[in-house]
Design goal:
Number of domains: 2
CATH architecture of the largest domain: Alpha-Beta Complex
CATH superfamily of the largest domain: Medium-chain alcohol dehydrogenases, catalytic domain
Strand content: 15-25%
Radius of gyration: 18 Å
Number of strands: 11
CATH topology of the largest domain: Quinone Oxidoreductase, Chain A, domain 1
Order of helices and strands: EEHEHHEHEHEEHEEHEHE
Number of helices: 8
CATH class of the largest domain: Alpha Beta
Helix content: 25-40%
Structural class: alpha/beta
């Protein structure tokens, strides 16, 4: 899980952080099998799990970056696309999809962005080439060079990929017919301090946009999960201790 906060102490081997310094990052949830998270007032993390937060970025906005922006960046790297390729991003109203659309557009890709109703104006501001309604059958789109399915919806997204293209999803989906030659990946986020620091700086400078759907007290974590499970959340819900 991801979070932000201030350093209150550190181990003997840590020499580059001081008490009171603001940091953001993730715990190694995929290594500890979810036994340790950030739903707490105090969290112990490895040094390589966090980076300093730029002075002009607040803690709430910074809390949206680590998991979502890293996942988006690493998903696009899996695609290995040349500039000018066409990329369909499903779930642009959410955290991963929103960052991915911006990063792909900035890399010179032609981005087709699937957005929720009423969210079209914000999505257009991310630099995408075209905004598609969420109600559209993705199987009727394309064929495109690559699809990032951040929802994911499975077969309809796979149908939009050109034969020989690439499909990246945030969770496992049914395999694509091997005869189509589609490269299929599930993006599993990897800790990467330099990459996270770069993304955090870009958000601080306004080069990458993020948004907070709501803030709730930590005691209302269950309500946050109910809202996410109900769908339609635009941006991230941040819990405050």
């Amino acid at each position: 899980m991801l979070g932000t906060g201030e350093v209150v102490g550190y181990g003997d081997g840590v020499t580059d952080l001081r008490p009171g310094e603001r940091v953001a990052g993730m715990v190694h949830w995929y290594q500890n099998r979810g036994t340790v998270g950030t739903y707490a007032e105090l969290v112990a993390v490895d040094r390589d799990a966090v980076v300093p937060i730029p002075d002009d970025l607040d803690l709430v906005a910074a809390a949206t970056v680590a998991l979502n922006a890293l996942t988006a960046r690493q998903a696009l790297e899996l695609m290995e696309l040349a500039p000018g390729s066409t990329v369909l991003v499903n779930g642009v109203s959410g955290g991963v999809g929103g960052f991915a659309a911006q990063l792909a557009a900035r890399a010179g890709q032609q981005v087709l962005a699937v957005a929720s109703q009423g969210d079209e104006e914000w999505v257009r501001g991310l630099g995408v080439a075209e905004v598609l309604p969420r109600t559209l059958d993705l199987a009727t789109v394309g064929p495109v060079d690559a699809v990032l399915d951040a929802v994911p919806v499975g077969a309809p997204a796979a149908a939009a990929v050109a034969d020989g293209g690439v499909l990246v999803t945030t969770r496992p989906t049914p395999p694509v017919d091997p005869a189509r030659g589609v490269r299929q990946h599930v993006v599993l986020i990897q800790q990467n301090q330099p990459m996270l620091a770069e993304l955090m700086a870009e958000v601080a400078k306004g080069e990458l946009l993020t948004r907070v759907a709501a803030t709730l007290p930590l005691a209302e974590a269950a309500e946050a999960h109910r809202r996410v499970e109900a769908g339609g959340v635009r941006g991230k819900i941040v819990l405050l201790p």
